Amino acid sequence: MTMNRRTFFAAGSAAAIVALPGAGAFAQAADALPVRIGTPGQQGNAGVYFADDLGYFKNAGLVAAITAITSGSGAAVVAAVTGGSLDIGNADLISIAAAREHGVEVSCIAPGVLWFGAQPTGAIIVSKASAMRVPRDLEGKTIAVPSIAGLSRISIDQWLDSLGLNRSSVKYVEMPSASVPQAVARGTIDAALITEPTLSLSLGDNRIFASPYDAIARVFVQTAWFAADEWIAKNPRAVRQFAVAIRDAQRWANQHPREATVLFEKHSGLTPEMLKNAVPSHYGEVLDPAQMQPVLDVAAKYHAIPQPIAAKELIARG
User: Fold this and answer.
1) What CA–CA distance (Å, rounded) separates 86 from 90?
2) At 25, which helix (H) or strand (E)?
């Protein structure tokens, strides 16, 4: 459905969303609105769990039904949203941009997790027995990534290029994160780019080699909450209330990382022991095109999306 698109949450939007009434104000409004939400269920997508467990959705007048979609990555969540089985989903910004550029009408309504260079949650690891010490040592090597079309691969490409190294000599293989630590420790693969909590769990036999995400920007949006444009147009109140609830919940998580980890543990199936050394995620609070554009530019540069796209074109309009 093609719509006349007016800015809904553009980033001058930071001011707009802050001006919305607090979550408690919505609780006194009309009947609560049901909303079906899909999340990959990882630490970086945990904002909906915080919003639900801490009452931010309830106070915002929403009744959330949350589904974890743990296979198929961001593309699977996009498919569920556009297919109508979910109202709102969370996916990496590259998947959302790729969907739009292929004619799928979805838009971002709130930020998810940020890459926050001061609090790094992802890195390239190598075996502690590896002779590799400097970035040039990766030339000619095999690096495992979660998705060859995704953020991990393009961040390494950008990083290698920024150092003047031969990225064409590097071979990438896709590998599930859970399989990576042993494969690196055994020398089956030379290196891998992984994120928390797998990263901290891998450091018994492996060591951190480099953090290439900073080559994109020190701070940028990795994932976002999104919905189909048609649903957004029909449900403006639900969209506004969801954005406020997520803003408040993710702000709480940034301010209370230990408590947020405990809540995530309950939903993840991971044990306290598995999470005790994990670096906490840093979440976005408002959609800011300036924090979205760097990863979109790099995605276009390395053909993870078909062509360049302006971040403001991904932000929900009505």
Assistant:
1) 11
2) helix 23-27
Instruction: Output the DSSP codes for 35-80.
Output: EEEEE--SGGGTHHHHHHHTTHHHHTTEEEEEEE--SSHHHHHHHH
* Helix (H/G/I), strand (E/B), else coil: 37: strand
pLDDT value at residue 281: 97
pLDDT of residue 317: 80
From its phi and psi, is residue 223 left (phi > 0), alpha (psi between -120 and 50) or beta? beta
- Tokens for 27? 């609780």
CATH class assigned to 12-116+219-314: alpha beta
**Token digits of residue 283:** 């979440």
Please report, for the chain, the start and end positions of each structural domain, with discontinuous segments joined by +.
Answer: 12-116+219-314, 122-215
What tens digit of pLDDT does each residue of 219-276 get? 999 999 999 999 999 999 999 999 999 999 999 999 999 999 999 999 998 999 999 9
Under a CB-based contact definition with an 8 Å cutoff, are residues 318 and 236 in contact? Answer: yes
Write out pLDDT tens, residues 4-61. 333 333 333 332 333 233 444 444 445 899 999 999 989 999 999 999 999 999 999 9
122-215: which CATH topology?
Answer: D-Maltodextrin-Binding Protein; domain 2 (3.40.190)
pTM for the model stands at 0.88
Q: Provide the 3-class DSSP secondary structure of residue 1.
A: coil
Do the strands 282-283 and 113-116 form a parallel or antiparallel pair, or are they unpaired? antiparallel
